[in-house]
Amino acid sequence: MKEIVQVKLDNEMDLILAHKRAMKLCEMTGFSLIVQTSIATAISEIARCAIEYGKEAVLVLGIESMGVKKFFKAMIRDKTDFSLRCTEACSFAKRLVDDIEIIRNGKEISITLQQQLNFSGTLTEGKIESFANYFKTEPPVSAYDEIRRKNLQLQELAEKLKESENDYRFLTDTLPLMMFSANTRGIISYSNKWLQDFFGFVPKELSQATWQAVIHPQDFSSFGKDIAYAVAKGTAFNGQYRFRQKSTGNYLWHIITVIPLKNEKEIITRWIGFIVDISAQKQVDQTLKDNRELKEIQQQLFQNQSELQQKVIELNRSNYELEQFAHLASHDLQEPLRKLFFYTDVLKKKYNANLDTSGHNMLNNMTLAAGRMKELISDLLSYSQLQQQKLKFEPVDLNDIINEIIKDLDIIIKEKKATVNIGNLPVLNGHPLRLRQLFTNLISNALKYSKQDTPPVIEVTASIENENILIRVKDNGIGFEEQYREKIFGLFERLHTRDQFPGTGIGLSICKRIVELHNGSIEADSVPNEYAIFSVTLPVTNAVDALIEE
After folding, report:
1. Could you list the residue range(s) of the whole structural domain that residue 172 is in?
2. DSSP state of 72
3. How many domains are there within the chain?
4. Which of 17, 53, 43, 163 is CA-nearest to residue 115?
5. Number of C-beta neighbours around residue 458 at 10 A
6. Tens of pLDDT, residues 42-93
7. What is the pLDDT of residue 76?
8. Which alpha helices (DSSP H) does 388-423 contain, by range?
9. Which residue blocks in 191-278 are alpha helix, DSSP H?
């Protein structure tokens, strides 16, 4: 045999190349298109088995002279005998070519397919040599272009072939395409191996219900409508949908084309379908889209970064102004107040006898106003220090803190005949001074906002909930409306006049800031004229020793 071209069979792309070169050599040697397709199909069937079950398979195409006769030959060799697993393929190939021969040599095997040439006498040695030179200089063709060209060729053949053995041969072509054939009622009479392997079964008919198991739920409705429309109108159908692969369970994008085959009277006799995998192309398109979105996000990030830098500049300026205010509050504003208190005291002592009731009231009001100003400055200074302060934590026993607060508030507790019940409290990592300030404000508020006719009862308890430490301060006082549960933590927010309850409206703002500096949160709940509960939530990681008994 004069070797014309050789193809190593390793993967599906080699299968495409083998089919292409077989078709080309058949064309060069004068076979008709139908015979070309038959021979190439037979070769592809055996080659597919060699790829799937062999190890180092090679396809050799050539021409052999036997006297005056010449034969087209295709030999597939492999070091592994794969023929036992390809009985069906070999049987099918025998129906497409003149002769097929299987030779075994130990574990090695060669399968030769043979077809006699029609014009062997005019096929000279020089002509045969030109065939070999053609394949040596043949330009490379991409797999996508090859699939597209073959798909068009198969569609042209499908329009010409009728319901016959040629139709069957066409459908069994082993290009990496899923193919099927359906009659005029939509019943699928044949499907190729690619379709069966991909879906794991053969759809019974070309209808919406049959394909529901393999098509993506989001594509199902449009697929059914498109198929129904094509069948009703007798027109070709083409669409892109996601089909589920049996082996992986993944949905992959495919193009499905369904073409009606008509006879000479333009009556539809059959439907031929092709399904081509375009998932790789979709991934490329998605990658390009993601890249565009990434660039847009990057631009937005640059813009946000610029805005953030501007905010940092403004924040630094604000912090500087806050530091200046703190200095003013702690020094410059305190001095006039001290003088005001001093002169008020002098007036009271030196001119007390000469002042009438109106004068005494004026001095008292002046003293009260100065006192409120001093309290306000003190609270503002405390709040401003918290805004810029980084606390240094250490173990703090809340039991000791609360007991010390009770002692400090002993006078007002006795005046109001209040009862303070303290539960078993934890030892926390925190700032002793600020924690003392926090619970002093909460307990003082509970005493301040008590009912006139009812002795205050204050409960301080702790528990662990959802991996957080929850410390509650509950009272039986006047409470507040639900609409104020967030508002009361705002700076200078007051729910009552100073005549009703004295204060600056900063205390709870200070409490909130202290809790935040301890990586926690604070919230309030209340029923008017029944109770108010302030709940401090801290991470359980703050605990040194919980000491909590439920």
Report:
1. 151-277
2. E
3. 4
4. 43
5. 22
6. 888 898 888 888 888 999 999 988 878 888 999 999 988 888 888 888 888 8
7. 92
8. 398-408, 410-415
9. 193-199, 208-211, 217-233
Neighbours of 460 (CB within 10 A): 22
Alpha carbon distances (Å) from 283 to 292, 457, 461, 488: 14, 68, 59, 55
456, 515 Cβ separation under 8 angstroms: no
Of 366, 386, 406, which residue constitutes the final position of a domain? 386
Cβ 409 vs Cβ 444: under 8 Å:
yes
Q: What is the pLDDT of residues 110-132, one digit of tens each?
A: 999 999 887 655 778 888 888 88
pLDDT band at 368, cuts 50/70/90? low
Give CA–CA dist 464/473, Å, rounded. Answer: 15
Look at residue 369 and tell me if it is in a domain.
yes
Rounded Cα distance, 418 and 434, in Å: 25
Q: What distance separates the 2 farthest-apart alpha carbons in the chain?
A: 153
**pLDDT tens digits, 378-391:** 666 665 666 555 67
Answer for the pair 543, 474: CB distance below 8 angstroms, yes or no.
Answer: no
Question: Which amino acid is present at 523?
Answer: E
Residue 145 belongs to some domain of the structure? no
The pLDDT, as a whole number, for residue 400 is 92
